[in-house]
Design a protein that fits this description.
This protein has one domain: Nucleoside phosphorylase domain (Rossmann fold). The protein is built from 6 helices and 9 strands; from the N terminus they run H-E-E-E-E-H-E-E-H-E-H-E-H-E-H. The structure holds hypoxanthine.
Length: 271
């Protein structure tokens, strides 16, 4: 794995000369954030050595290198999901490469189902903690001590200082920002009503099919993580017609400006 990370990192360095501190992962429906970046280089996943090979037709996504509010950032437009059949190592490989490129701050976003009675569709939530419900962990297997410890601490998985910055900014700008626990699970089926109720009961506030593997790997390498969910559907009041992926994407687009404002503040603060 170390050789793969090194080869991919060298390739990206040669192509882009990137030397920023921040990477952003854009979740489903949140890809428009990329339009706000003054892009200097774009690398399609297909052309990046050792990046997972797409299992589905069409383009899988790209890394965008450029300036946002004067800071050098990488944006990951389109992520690798476990439900697509990628291994946990593949899902989290980009995070390994970001760290090797010198990135210390990882901002992650996702579209998620709300499982808190105070949340409404279109709201945004700062992730202050998570529950790994994938039934597996990206760190299973031989530990690479060069990357991080065998038993990494996860007690501050979502960096409290970054949360403070976001909290103050949201309150100053009158952006309603919920806080809570994200439950990550494999999907790709949406949850049954009983499953949503169960996830609410065990302490979840949002539920989705990503983020947790990437955040575990980022913590393994001592990166500082900030995460946000856009609530695209209400798990505790499922509509008559059921949950639909297209609705998830439409709502994510509507809520995206709130996320962009908060990510923008963090990038300009830390980057
Ligand atoms: N469940 C899981 N993943 C999701 C959901 C959901 O309700 N909404 C958006 N992503």
């Amino acid at each position: 794995m170390l050789q793969k990370i090194e080869a991919t990192t060298k390739f990206i360095q040669n192509k882009t000369g990137f030397s920023g501190k921040t990477a952003v992962i854009l979740g489903s429906g949140l890809g428009n954030f990329a339009d706000l970046i003054e892009a200097e280089y774009k690398l399609a996943y297909e052309e990046i050595p050792n990046f997972p090979v797409s299992t589905v037709e069409g383009h899988t996504g790209q890394l965008i290198f450029g300036k946002y509010k004067g800071k050098d950032i990488i944006a990951m437009q389109g992520r690798f999901h476990y439900y697509e059949g990628y291994s946990m190592e593949e899902v989290t490989f980009p995070i390994r490469v970001f760290k090797a490129l010198g990135v210390d701050y990882l901002l992650v976003s996702n579209a998620a189902g709300g499982i808190n009675y105070n949340f409404e569709v279109g709201d945004v939530m700062m992730i202050t903690d998570h529950i790994n419900f994938f039934g597996t962990n990206p760190l299973i297997g031989k530990n690479e001590n060069k990357l991080g410890p065998r038993f990494p601490d996860m007690s501050r998985a979502y960096n409290p200082e970054l949360c403070d910055v976001a909290r103050s900014f949201a309150s100053e700008k009158n952006i309603q920002l919920h806080e809570g626990t994200y439950v990550g699970l494999t999907g790709p089926s949406f949850e049954t009503p009983a499953e949503y109720r169960f996830l609410h009961t065990i302490g979840g506030d949002t539920v989705g099919m990503s983020t947790v593997p990437e955040v575990i790997v980022a913590n393994h390498m001592s990166m500082k993580v900030f995460g946000m969910s856009v609530i695209t559907n209400n798990g505790l009041a499922i509509p008559e017609e059921g949950n639909k992926h297209n609705d998830v994407l439409d709502i994510a687009k509507i809520a995206a400006p709130k996320l962009e404002a908060i990510f923008g503040k963090l990038i300009s603060t830390v980057g």
